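Milestone 3.1: sequence recovery, worked example.
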């Protein structure tokens, strides 16, 4: 009995991976929000003096570089944690600790902001009830959704994603109808990008600082994803196309599996620019 207990392998401790790929994609879409520019359109317009499109495009350039960096870090460190993991691994664990607490504060403050915004927006439709009633209503609704578990949240996100998609389609249809049926002067389509009378770099960048809110979300997506344990090897000269070399790496990965939590185990072969050339799961 003692020998059996001594030889028993301790069961790994971790989170249950209940979300699939499409669940994560939809969660990312909902957090990024296809309708995000609609809610802050007026604020950007006031700050950028009507150059909303220009501000959003400038913000897109900056966020593209950030997204590329996140994509590379996600390949190098395929685990949940997002910026907390990346800063802690690449720079210093103390800095990762600070970033982690910053993310915690974000997760604490953001639900409060969302609750207040939902209450205010609902009052535009149903003004008869007080602001505090809607605050309590949405706080209870969001708490109930979280207590029901991540699967319930995923299903709610599917409904929200479908609703936002319908809103975007209706909005685009209205735009096409308005633009197609009205005669416009030659500068009508260029003024949203550049209007000499109101274009000022300081106001454009002030609007850009708000426009970046349209792109937040992929960090939360990455903080939720977890591929499990992964081993990556950097190889060159098209080695990933050589079955003998691939088999050798598979053997190395299987031999290392007990030390990193056992199978299943992801094996990644990357080139010198960290581009994944082969990705397989060993069972």
């Amino acid at each position: 009995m003692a020998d059996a207990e001594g030889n028993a392998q301790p069961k790994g401790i971790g989170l249950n991976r209940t979300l699939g790929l499409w669940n994560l994609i939809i969660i990312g879409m909902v957090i990024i929000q296809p309708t995000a520019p609609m809610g802050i359109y007026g604020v950007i317009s006031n700050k950028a003096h009507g150059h909303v499109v220009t501000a959003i495009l400038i913000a897109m350039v900056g966020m593209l570089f950030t997204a590329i960096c996140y994509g590379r870090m996600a390949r190098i460190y395929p685990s949940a944690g997002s910026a907390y993991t990346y800063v802690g691994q690449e720079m210093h664990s103390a800095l990762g600790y600070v970033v982690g607490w910053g993310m915690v504060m974000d997760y604490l403050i953001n639900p409060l902001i969302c609750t207040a915004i939902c209450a205010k927006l609902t009052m535009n439709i149903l003004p008869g009830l007080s602001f505090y009633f809607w605050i309590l209503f949405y706080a209870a609704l969001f708490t109930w959704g979280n207590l029901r578990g991540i699967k319930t949240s995923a299903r709610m996100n599917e409904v929200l994603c479908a609703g936002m998609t319908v809103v975007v389609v209706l909005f685009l249809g209205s735009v096409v109808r308005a633009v197609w049926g009205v005669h416009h002067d030659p500068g009508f389509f260029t003024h949203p990008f550049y209007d000499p009378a109101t274009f000022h770099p300081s106001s454009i960048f002030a609007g850009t600082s708000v426009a970046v809110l349209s792109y937040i979300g992929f960090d939360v997506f990455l903080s939720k994803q977890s591929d499990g344990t992964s081993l990556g090897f950097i190889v060159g000269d098209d080695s990933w196309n050589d079955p003998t070399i691939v088999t050798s790496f598979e053997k190395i990965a299987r031999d290392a599996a007990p030390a990193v939590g056992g199978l299943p185990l992801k094996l990644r072969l990357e080139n010198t620019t960290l581009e994944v050339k082969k990705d397989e799961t060993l069972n």
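The chain has two domains: 20-175+193-227, 228-283. Residues 16 and 148 are 15 Å apart (CA to CA).
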